[in-house]
Specification:
Layout (H helix, E strand, L loop, with lengths): L1 H15 L7 E2 L23 H7 L2 H9 L2 E2 L13 E5 L5 E4 L3 E2 L7 E2 L8 E6 L6 E6 L5 E6 L9 E4 L4 E5 L6 H4 L18
Antiparallel strand pairs: 1-2, 3-4, 3-11, 5-6, 6-10, 7-8, 8-9, 9-10
Length: 198
Amino acid sequence: MAAFLRRGLFLALHHTLGQSRSSVFHPVLPAALLGACRTTKSWPVSFSQEELRKRLTPKQYHVTQERGTERAFTGEFTDHKDEGTFNCVVCGAILFSSNSKFDSGSGWPSFFDVVKEESITLSDDHTYGMHRVETTCSQCGAHLGHLFDDGPKPTGKRYCINSVALAFQPKDTQPTSSNFAAEGGATSSPVSDGKTEL
C-alpha cells in the first residue's frame, strides 16, 4: 500500500510540474535549494566535468552529476533479467548483483542488497518536502537513486536506482572496476565504446 501511495504521489508531482512527457525529471529548482543535504566531499575517483559531458549521455550526466531522476518505467534495466553485475556508469565500481534484483513495481530497478556495503554512500535528502536517503557511488560520488526500508527479506531494503546511473556487465564478462573507466567506461553492454541511452 505504501509503495502504491508513493508511486501515486510521484506521478501526481510529475503531472503537476508538467513533466509527464519527458523521460528525465528536471526539477524546477536546483536540488540544493529544495533541501538536499549532501556535503562537498572529495571522492577517491574523480573526472573533470568536461570529460564527463563528453563520455556520458545528457541523461546520464543529468542523473549522476545533477542528482536528476529518470521517469518511472522508462529505464533500460527496470525489467532486466540477465545474470551479471550492475556497475556505476561513471567510474565502473561494482554496485549490485542481479541476484539481489527484484521487481518492486516502482518503475525503477530495485535491489535488496549491495555487493559490498562500502560501495554505496548514504546521505539525507530533504528535496520536495520529504525525507529520503540518497545513494551515491562511494568511489566517484555519482548520484544513483534512493534507499527505502520496504524491500523484501532478508534485508528489508529497497535500493531504488536510476537505470542511466548503471552499466550492466553480463556474468561471463566481468571487468574489474579499476580498468572499467580506462577501457571506455560508461557502457551498458560488453562493448566498451558504447554509451547507455534510454
